[in-house]
């Protein structure tokens, strides 16, 4: 990836996070190790997993076997939905740490707020404890709405380092991203290409033709210029390499504005205010 270096952002605790990550959602455990090794070979240095994905162990194996120094690879994992209880959360961190076998986890997230399941404030306090103990280098949240964040900020000590949310051209989340930024919280975007829905968009296709890139690359570049951390998922090494080749061109302000105009407030995933699924 010469001449295509992935930039990093500074989290609110000074830890640097690569702006492009490799997402492992829906990659089967049997396929995860090879996919992560290919991503690392392509130049990725940020791997995103979760207890819910069932592939933490394979992610850890890939990082250890890659030959890349541990401090050069940023690894994110997430608390499973059945661990929304302080004692369960502490145990979950221990299990993730054991499965990954990489030492302190770079970033650990509360995966969903689950407002009707448990008290995410108490769960967050458990992560604060693990962070203070050095088991986690950074802690953050995922799928938190402004109301959830406001309650955390009012009742806990550590400001989340990131908020990983659904964000893409059709669901841009501008008010929430603004709130995140005003409070020193980095926005991470999952489903950055809207689960492939953007690939047939005529506006994005027109811009892609103008800059000589694919629609996926244009969309990911738009995210990067907005300041998002992104996780395009692909089990195809060729597609993963294409997704990483987005740092040697820029979109103009006019091109970015045309993408901004695509916002339809169209959520594809669950609504965090009502999503309360817990695995058996």
TrEMBL record:
The lineage of its organism: Bacteria, Bacillati, Actinomycetota, Actinomycetes, Mycobacteriales. It comes from the Bacteria. Belongs to the aldo/keto reductase family. Substrate binds at residue 111. It comes from Gordonia spumicola. Keywords: NADP, Oxidoreductase. The record marks 78 as: Lowers pKa of active site Tyr. The active site is at 53 (proton donor). Residues 20-263 form the NADP-dependent oxidoreductase domain. GO terms for molecular function: oxidoreductase activity, acting on the CH-OH group of donors, NAD or NADP as acceptor. The keyword Oxidoreductase applies. This is Oxidoreductase.
């Amino acid at each position: 990836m010469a001449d295509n270096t992935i930039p990093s952002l500074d989290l609110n605790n000074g830890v640097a996070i690569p702006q492009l990550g490799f997402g492992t959602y829906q990659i089967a455990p049997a396929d995860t190790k090879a996919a992560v090794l290919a991503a690392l070979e392509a130049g990725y240095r940020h791997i995103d997993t979760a207890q819910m994905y069932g592939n933490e162990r394979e992610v850890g194996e890939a990082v250890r076997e890659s030959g890349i120094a541990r401090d050069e690879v940023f690894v994110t994992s997430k608390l499973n939905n059945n661990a929304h209880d302080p004692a369960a959360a502490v145990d979950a961190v221990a299990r993730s740490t054991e499965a990954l076998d990489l030492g302190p986890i770079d970033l650990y997230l509360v995966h969903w707020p689950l407002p009707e399941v448990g008290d995410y404030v108490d769960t967050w306090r458990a992560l604060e404890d693990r962070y203070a103990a050095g088991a986690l280098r950074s802690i953050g949240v995922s799928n938190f709405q402004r109301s959830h964040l406001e309650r955390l900020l009012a009742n806990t000590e550590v400001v989340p380092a990131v908020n990983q949310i659904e964000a893409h051209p059709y669901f841009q989340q501008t008010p929430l991203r603004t709130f995140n930024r005003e409070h020193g919280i980095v926005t991470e975007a999952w489903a950055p290409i809207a689960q492939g829905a953007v690939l047939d968009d005529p506006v994005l296709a027109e811009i892609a033709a103008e800059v000589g890139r694919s629609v996926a690359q244009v969309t990911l570049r738009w995210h990067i210029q907005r300041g998002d951390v992104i996780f395009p998922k692909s089990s195809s090494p060729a597609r993963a390499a294409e997704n990483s080749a987005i740092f040697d061109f820029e979109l103009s302000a006019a091109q970015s504005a045309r993408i901004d105009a695509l916002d339809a407030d169209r959520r594809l995933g669950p609504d965090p205010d009502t999503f309360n699924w817990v695995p058996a």
